[in-house]
Model the fold of this input.
Amino acid sequence: GNAFVSGHIGDLDDPETERSYREEITSFRLMFDAAPEAVACDLHPDYLATRYAKSLALPLVPVQHHKAHFASVLAEHGIRENALGFIFDGTGLGDDGLIWGGEAFFGSIAESARAGHLLPFPLLGGDAAAREPWRCALAVAEIALGRKEALALRENRREAEILLRARDAGVNAPLSTSMGRLFDAIASLAGVRQTTSYEGQAAVELEQAADGQAEGSYRFDILDEGGMLVFDWRALVADAARDARKGVGAGTISARFHRACVALVRDAAVLLRKKTGCGIAALSGGCFMNEILFEGCFAALEAEGFRVYSNKAVPVNDGGISYGQAAIAAELYGG
Done:
């Protein structure tokens, strides 16, 4: 009935951090006299933590990243019944092999299924798209406006053309449903930031730029494709790009985008409640560190009669992933 979560370790992308990670696990096992019966890890096979988990020769429970976020909320609040989950963050390998990050789920801690997702778009240059938001803006603008108009938005047209030709050839442009990368795209279109020094910087600055006094809102169209809701941002991106060209300020563009995101969560939740009869909603993922998004969604859902939950004891971002993974594994191994 207890969970013990370590302090922040960080991305396991250098030998020193990896050493700290392994030492922390050893310390926990000694401190709590623990004899693990199973090990949970991320679904991504190339993560260092996943490779470490496989080396332990224990029953392995690979957990999809966003399902772990969802489970972390349900487990923390002791929710045993089915719930709806809106999980918005940067990236995580999806069950279908695509890069997820703008997802809706329905289910419980032990078992949940995808009920909706952001319309996919390519990450031009792969991981580089997280460091250079203009790549995200180019990708969504081409889909929303066409190639000619998308290229006209870029000062360095040659580099943009090379990236799009590479995408056409199927080179290093994985599809993604990431809400975090859509935030980056809007930040770029609004002129907030074109390159970053850390992941999420453009989204943070887009939130800071928002003018609460500005009027209007963009919109997502919600499509139903074979029972799966698809959150279509094409009209939103087209409107944001055209506002930017007309000289509308970043504060107004940001405010209109944030309102669209809040309306999306509210409207998708209402649609899913009609399908499932479920009146419980969970919010998690790094995007919900954004106070405008979090507070707006929480209030909008409550106004529609939902019981709304999010992370409190564990972080809403990836700092809570291990807890969600462990909660799912515990359910599968008898709690």
User: Anything to note?
Assistant: The chain has 13 helices and eleven strands. The mean pLDDT is 96. Residues 226 and 324 are 29 Å apart (CA to CA).
